[in-house]
């Protein structure tokens, strides 16, 4: 099957406008006769469901949570990008496009990224109209801050709760349509399989997580918006329930899975404290605007801090190594996430880590507190403030900008970050890979769409901060509603899709067989036992740095673990009631297949780019020494994997990437 990205012809700045001018439309009367299923109700799924229903389609929306407002999008903290140039600092649609392609290490599809930059400004207007309480400056205008990998301030934010506020906006739009009867909302329902009729996606099989009932739902198109697969590592910043299962089910029915090895390790997370943890906690990248990252300059000081003999505040400026500022003077603490993460790992591997495990660096706000304090004192007319007053005023400013993040850190770590530097360390956060989609956001299954983090389309090998919320809402509010209409215009005479078709019966039978296996298997080990072991293999051998030996071992070990899982997993309880262990079993089964494909993809890609760092492919000399070394001659393509049974047998299809508007060059933030 040839991969056709369906990118429109013509200049990149005109592609999306010309495309919209020539697509087929569905008139309002016909929309009332067309059903669309949306799986997942985070920012991408919630905005898509609300918009499609507003247009007149009949929408069925499914969430495994007890409410759409509990989607993991709620955990996003720092902000959402948009090229509005409110700061007058030189931003533009092209600059956002350029920063995103460069930030992704030149492994994204240009046309999709330009469209994302183009519609970004509309998102802010939409959300302000919904009442999203973005931060404002002293004059009442929307405020912006900067994020990693850029030299402008384009990030709109609501303290450290941006995801929550944006999700409430989408949720309110959904609720309006639920009240009108245009959205049928199915909470506590998990998609178990997709149903294909004559090769087209025509419905899904779900399990009611409360009653255990298996249900059939039909539609003229299916939209997958179920987020990323970071929990394949077990420990990540994702919610415990976040999973790959919906994406993996459509993969096994014919949707190609693209670039699974492109996984983002976020540099600013609370470090692991022990093997008792079930997840990790993100500290927003926005903190790097004002926080300075450092480790002790001397090994003996790092050792003394680890042993509790010294405190970070005991070290003078000369005894600190602000290593990002030293290595990347142009961007400093605001280098992209992949660069900052590898730099932290390098310092800790060299022995300069600062917590008991040796895997942490400091994020210090002392300078910011002094700077803001002096500024506020001048504003108040005090030209010779005391140190105590400067400290008090500075902390008030920092609290106004980041207070909820500081409070969260204090509660988890039991240290006051206003007076003691935060400890941070990289952790699995976001997945740039996902289901392959064309320009229309359609997968290789006709009628099956994939949006938001669940698809691969916009970020390349590394996502810049504050772009996840941008992509999710761009897809849901402003892209999918156009592209899906072009496809559905052929279905205006199709009529209702019957759930009595043999394809539905066959899919339901397969789902029930797997469920019955789990509850009847007389194993001896819990689902979490296997998930934790998978996570350890992934982190140790497919984590921040990878090599051919480790990846080959990982594939063998994951396959063996998967075989052991099917023999020895124990799922207590029954299938006809609420059973969280049963739900987890199906999700971990999918992770055990994805993990092997992930390692295979990383093994095939014999280059370093963005979040994928092969130890064999690093710059060995010159100003870029130690940085990722791309191979544009052999690897400027999207890896799209076709399911063939065992992950080891997956077939690679390549979408060659073309760069007509941005020059391919070595990425530098120095």
From TrEMBL:
Gene Ontology MF term list: electron transfer activity; flavin adenine dinucleotide binding; succinate dehydrogenase (quinone) activity
Catalytic activities: a quinone + succinate = fumarate + a quinol
One GO cellular component term: plasma membrane
InterPro entries cross-referenced by the UniProt entry: FAD-dep_OxRdtase_2_FAD-bd, FAD/NAD-bd_sf, Fum_R/Succ_DH_flav-like_C_sf, Fum_Rdtase/Succ_DH_flav-like_C, SdhA/FrdA/AprA, Succ_DH/Fum_Rdt_flav_su, Succ_DH/fumarate_Rdtase_cat_sf
Keyword field contains Cell membrane: yes
Primary enzyme class: oxidoreductase
EC number of this enzyme: 1.3.5.1
Localisation: Cell membrane
Cofactor section: FAD
Domain of life: Bacteria
Entry keyword Hydrolase: no
Region listing for Disordered, in residue ranges: 611-631
Domain Fumarate reductase/succinate dehydrogenase flavoprotein-like C-terminal, first and last residues per copy: 531-669
Gene3D superfamilies referenced in this protein's UniProt entry, alphabetically: FAD/NAD(P)-binding domain, Fumarate reductase/succinate dehydrogenase flavoprotein-like, C-terminal domain, Succinate dehydrogenase/fumarate reductase flavoprotein, catalytic domain
SUPFAM superfamilies in the cross-refs: FAD/NAD(P)-binding domain, Succinate dehydrogenase/fumarate reductase flavoprotein C-terminal domain, Succinate dehydrogenase/fumarate reductase flavoprotein, catalytic domain
Entry annotation: catalytic residues: 337
Biological-process GO terms, alphabetical: anaerobic respiration
Membrane topology: Peripheral membrane protein
Pfam families per the UniProt record, alphabetical: FAD_binding_2, Succ_DH_flav_C
Keyword annotations from UniProtKB, A to Z: Cell membrane, Electron transport, FAD, Flavoprotein, Membrane, Oxidoreductase, Transport
Residue span(s) of domain FAD-dependent oxidoreductase 2 FAD-binding: 35-469
UniProt family annotation: Belongs to the FAD-dependent oxidoreductase 2 family. FRD/SDH subfamily.
Name of this chain's protein: succinate dehydrogenase
Gene: sdhA
């Amino acid at each position: 099957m040839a991969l056709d990205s369906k990118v429109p012809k013509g200049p990149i700045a005109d592609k999306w406008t010309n495309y919209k001018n020539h697509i087929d439309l569905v008139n309002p009367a016909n929309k009332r006769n067309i059903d669309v299923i949306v799986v997942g109700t985070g920012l991408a799924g919630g905005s898509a469901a609300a918009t499609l229903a507003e247009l007149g389609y009949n929408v069925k929306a499914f969430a495994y949570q007890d409410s759409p407002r509990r989607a993991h999008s709620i955990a996003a903290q720092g902000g959402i990008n948009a090229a509005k140039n409110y700061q007058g600092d030189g931003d533009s649609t092209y600059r956002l496009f350029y920063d995103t392609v460069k930030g992704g290490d030149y492994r994204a599809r240009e046309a999709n990224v330009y469209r994302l930059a183009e519609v970004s400004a509309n998102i802010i207007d939409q959300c302000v109209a919904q009442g999203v309480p973005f931060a404002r400056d002293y004059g009442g205008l929307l405020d912006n801050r900067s994020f990693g990998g850029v030299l402008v301030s384009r990030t709109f934010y609501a303290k450290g709760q941006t995801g929550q506020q944006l999700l409430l906006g989408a949720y309110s739009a959904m609720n309006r349509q639920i009240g009108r009867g245009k959205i049928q909302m199915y909470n506590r329902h998990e998609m178990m399989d997709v149903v294909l009729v004559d090769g087209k996606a025509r419905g899904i099989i779900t399990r009611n997580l409360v009653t255990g009932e298996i249900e059939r739902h039909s539609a003229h198109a299916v939209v997958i918006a179920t987020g990323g697969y970071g929990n394949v590592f077990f420990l990540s910043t994702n919610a415990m329930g976040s999973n790959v299962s919906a994406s993996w089910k459509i993969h096994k029915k014919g949707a190609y899975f693209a670039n699974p090895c492109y996984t983002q390790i976020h540099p600013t997370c609370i470090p692991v404290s022990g093997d008792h943890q079930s997840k990790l906690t993100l500290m927003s990248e926005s903190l790097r605007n004002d926080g300075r990252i450092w480790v002790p300059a001397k090994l003996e000081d790092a050792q003394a801090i680890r042993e509790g003999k010294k405190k970070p505040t005991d070290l003078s400026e000369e005894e600190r190594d602000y290593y990002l500022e030293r290595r990347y003077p142009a961007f400093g603490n605001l280098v992209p996430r992949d660069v900052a993460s590898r730099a932290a790992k390098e310092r800790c591997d060299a022995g300069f880590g600062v917590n008991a495990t040796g895997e942490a660096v400091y994020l210090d706000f002392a300078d910011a507190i002094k700077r803001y304090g002096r500024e506020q004192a001048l504003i108040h007319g005090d030209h010779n403030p005391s140190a105590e007053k400067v400290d008090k005023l500075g902390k008030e400013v920092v609290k106004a900008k980041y207070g909820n993040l500081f409070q969260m850190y204090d509660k988890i770590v039991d240290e006051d970050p206003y007076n003691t530097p935060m400890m941070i360390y990289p952790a699995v956060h976001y997945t740039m890979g996902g289901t392959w989609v064309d320009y229309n956001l359609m997968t290789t299954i006709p009628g099956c769409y994939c949006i938001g983090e669940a698809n691969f389309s916009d970020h390349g090998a590394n996502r810049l901060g504050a772009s996840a919320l941008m992509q999710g809402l761009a897809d849901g509010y402003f892209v999918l509603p156009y592209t899906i209409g072009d496809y559905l215009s052929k279905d205006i005479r199709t009529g209702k899709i019957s759930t009595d078709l043999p394809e539905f019966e066959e899919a339901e039978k397969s789902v029930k067989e797997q469920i019955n296996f789990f509850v009847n298997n007389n194993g001896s080990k819990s689902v979490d036992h296997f998930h934790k072991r998978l996570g350890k293999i992934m982190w140790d051998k497919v984590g921040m740095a990878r090599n051919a030996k480790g990846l080959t071992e990982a594939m063998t070990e994951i396959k063996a673990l998967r075989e052991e899982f099917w023999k020895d997993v124990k799922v207590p309880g029954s299938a006809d009631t609420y059973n969280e262990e049963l739900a987890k079993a199906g999700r971990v089964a999918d992770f055990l297949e994805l993990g092997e494909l992930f390692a295979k993809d990383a093994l095939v890609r014999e280059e370093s780019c963005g979040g994928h760092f092969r130890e064999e492919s690093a710059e060995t000399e010159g100003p870029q020494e130690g940085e990722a070394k791309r191979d544009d001659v052999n690897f400027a393509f999207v890896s799209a994997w076709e399911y063939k049974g065992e992950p080891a047998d997956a077939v690679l299809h390549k979408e060659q990437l073309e760069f007509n508007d941005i020059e391919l060059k070595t990425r530098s933030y120095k």
